[in-house]
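Entry type: protein chain
Record version: 2
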Amino acid sequence: MRRQLFLETFLKALGAQNILWGKIDDEKIYGTVIYDEADFEERQDFVWKMREENVPSKNAEKLLNALRENNLISVDKIVKSVAELSSAFLSEEEKQLALEEISKVSVMMIDDGIESDTYFLHH
């Protein structure tokens, strides 16, 4: 399931150590992000409203992995121009398209059963 793989990559780029998956249907994926396994307070429930056919591309996933591996994300901001990120696996055009896809990703946080805030990544 590409949705789940992409979402895991996205949330780990934003600092998740682990993800507990909840209900998954054709329209939404529910779960809990774990930031610190030892601290129960360091968890956040979420829902991603996304259909399988609309999941960002594999290039977007590759870019997220490169950003995470090179420590180029601070909280929810890309701290270096993507053009400066050397990449043997993506052309300049592919990087820009992937960045546009990533910038459109929005995962809702859930607090006390209510959608309250959003996970997103900007540059």
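Comment: The CA atoms of residues 60 and 100 lie 9 Å apart.
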